[in-house]
Records
---
Amino acid sequence: MSTPEGGAVDECRFFIDELSDRELHLGSVVLNRALPPFLTNRRAATSARTLIRDARTIASQAPVADPELVATVLNEVGESFLDYGIAATRQRELAAELSELSATMVTIPYLTSDIVDVDGLAHVAAALRA
């Protein structure tokens, strides 16, 4: 599956059903580009909310030329973290649903760059072995 998101999960279910209907063995389901678990950490989310709430105070204490701009950046960082946390939680829920359909599930984490060389493949291989 490309990513553990709604449409891709529906396609995966369809293909699992097709394999079953044809009495073909499903080796495993591979979840690609899964968001990291720390995005669903409650303490991390609390920190993000604190960053949003206290952005102006934190920025006013930093040795910067434009505290208002820094407060805006800190707020955006906190909001983005919370948004990614929602997406990561949804991915985990969808993965749990799929795990009921397959005895073996492998997760490849979201990587910051495309796989274009042997080093990139080594990263994927390490994730598969983990």
---
Amino acid sequence: MAPLTICHPFIDSSARALLRSSYPLSASFFFASHEASCAPRFASRCSVIYRSIVRPILFALPPETAHSVTMTALRALQHATPLLRLTRASLLPHDPALVVNAFGLTFPTPVGLAAGLDKDAAAFEAFGSFGFGFVEVGTITAEAQPGNPRPRLFRLPADRALINRMGFNNRGAAAAAERIARRRSRQTLLGINMGKTKRIPNEAAADDYAASARLLAPHADYVVVNVSSPNTPGLRDLQQVSELRKLLIGVRRTLDAACPGRRIPLLLKIAPDLADADIDAIADLAIELQLEGLIATNTTIKRDGLATDAASVAACGNGGLSGAPVKSRALDVLRRLRTRVGTRVALIAVGGIETADDAWERIRAGATLVQLYTALIYDGPLLARRIALGLAQRARAAGFANVADAIGIDAAR
């Protein structure tokens, strides 16, 4: 098979040879991605290659093994600075119609990576280089912990879904803070998703989250409190407003003390399984505490309407379901939040977003930003770029100068 050719005007043949010899693992990521900017048809060709060749190879491996292989390659790319810069220059859309301002930050595109893939903040710049406008790492806990026993990650291809019960496996807040600090010239907008250490009882949860916030605040563009994962026993009990108020006030005070020179945006991620009355109560609390944002939604514990046979689903056991089956409920929660908070709290939509049409619907329903997770596993690394460019096309076709002008347009009717 002939080697791919880099067509960047500033890379001559000797430079290409040097890149190949110096970074053999990461080069394959860059060569493929850079061709997408040189020949528009190559982007769709890459998608076909991923679905027909790469994905079958990854899907032949146990899900968590496939994830580890992918993360190894991305970590290599993150350390290959020349390739990382060129990949980012090639794949991050530079269209003013995509720029969005939210909670004091300027996002180059509204399409981000959801928490759960880069649990230890080990490859966020590499993820960002593939066209994401921002990357949310974690979930990170104050203490290192192994998570739940394996197997704990399962694919449902017939539903384009995943079931996971990972249990916040990560190396802890101190290790993550040190790792992020080593990136002295960070290019990617970084959200940090924080969870509760499993061994800590709910009565001490506020102190546990505050311990993470103290360590991570200096390195975050925004911080997310995650009390909605179904994989830590009792965690979702913290979504009760009486518990949540104390926790969020404590985190806010810690963020302000850790970074007195700037206000770090504080967001809350909620579950799709909440009753509507509880969603309203959380929305009201977000307004009361002046939270910068709400993320709707996390994974669901429900298993309704799946194409996968019931026996196979049952064999996966407990855990959170993500992907296409969450789409409808996540959209309902988003619409309810928008009705409740209006423009006073920014909303980030996640759950079942697979196409530009999905993302466009969420933005029109009131989302300022959108995040991808499961669809990336099924559709490959160029998905963020495709969705972002599709959003710009849809905005212009609808008569908007930019995507931001369409935020909440359907909710206003």
---
Amino acid sequence: MLPFVLVLAVAFGGLGAWIASQKGRAGGEGLALGLLFGPLGVLVEALLPTVAAGTGRTALTATRGPAPGPVRPRRSIGPGDVEVTGPDDPPGWQKYRRETTGEVFWSPAPEPAPEPEPAPGPKRWERPLHPTDQEAGAV
């Protein structure tokens, strides 16, 4: 009985590895799923999305535009940092290159400055002075 179970586990592992390689995924992923979970693991591997060739991203996300790249935590932008944001970079992010090390990192785009509040006009109960009142010095 045990040899039969082992043969089945290896068969499902091989099938899972083959399906994974056909979908552009790592063969070890399919092998592990097939060995551990048998036909259920093979079914799960078959239902996983296909990976676009050469991108390492699934076909669904590969059609949504450029990836923002590895987003590192925000750093303080210093005098030796040059903005190198290009037209294909994602909106809301700015790409910088540190001149001293050549390191490229992303930083969230600065928030736009708030619009200034309009200057306060006369209050509702005040009326502007008439030119004759201004001449007489009435305030």
---
Amino acid sequence: MSSITPFSAPCLAVSALLTAVSFSSPVQAQTMTSSTASVSQSITASTAAAPTVQPDVPALTPEEELLLEEEYGDIRSIDTVIITADAEEVSKVAGSAHKVTEKELERFEYDDIQRVLTKVSGVYVRDEDGFGLRPNIGMRGVSSERSAKVVLMEDGILLAPAPYSAPPAYFTPLATRMINVEIFKGPSSIQNGPYTVGGAVNYVTAEIPNSHQAMIDVAAGQFDYSKLHGRWGYGEKHWGLLLEGVRLSSSGFKELDGGGNTGFEKHEAMLKARYNTNPDGEYFHRFDIKLGYADEVSNETYLGLSNSDFAANPYRRYRASALGLMEWERTQMQLSYGLWAGDSFELNLTAYRHDYSRAWRKFNNFGTFDSGALQTFDV
């Protein structure tokens, strides 16, 4: 028995921002088709930034400064930590925000977004398959089941298969492709979409460079783990292009009774292109296109172990789960237009569509006593 589950959720959102006061008027519509499409628009008008209020901190004596300088260096040159953007934007964030920087991501080179998010206070995860193929992310006390109470985004665009009707995350981009990960908790996450009870997580992909750039990342490890990640980009004053691709695979670490593969193979590819007018002109126009493809084949199952079997060997898998197989495929397209008129007016339009289909073959039961055969079904 085989089936493919399509999802869809089109929406239209318009927002306006004036200094520190924001107004929004979302209009949402939902249908069940085989794709997700959305158009979003924002208009921004800004004035001079509000003056910075300095806290009243008691001055140190010369002796205290000397002792601290000997221990920690020049205390007058302490760097300022800025999250998401500049200080003015940080002051507008209601609730809390955290940014995992590119330097932090490169330090550990995690492929699993759950391992990245465990470094962020207030975020908790529940591992399921050991590879982070289907993340379970929770915040602020809500259930982490399939990250259904947390909005997941890529470059500010909702990425769940059906974010308005079926938000559980059966798909997540590979963390190795990201240059930043932004986490919003509390009221600051409301503007990012539906189901923000817990918060929001935004994956930020690489930008198109202004010159020639290229990189390649090759890795190998236990359980036949292998990774091949490449990125190439070139940009000039009026145009730019970026290509990126990742292949990740493993034979798995679980021990299937009778032997067999318990791993996965995953591919992701992305193309970005831009064209813009003269940046020094009175009006600056920019056009962007983003195309993406991803697929996965994983030998995963929901079938667990009894308490006694788990105590004896937590990595064991029953032979009945040997036919468990998840297969999915996803495509995405995003078109963006930006208009800037001096420093006081900014208009951004984004239209996107993504298509996602999956089939997960799972163990159902042992059949009848007459057949004695295992029965499976696809969902």
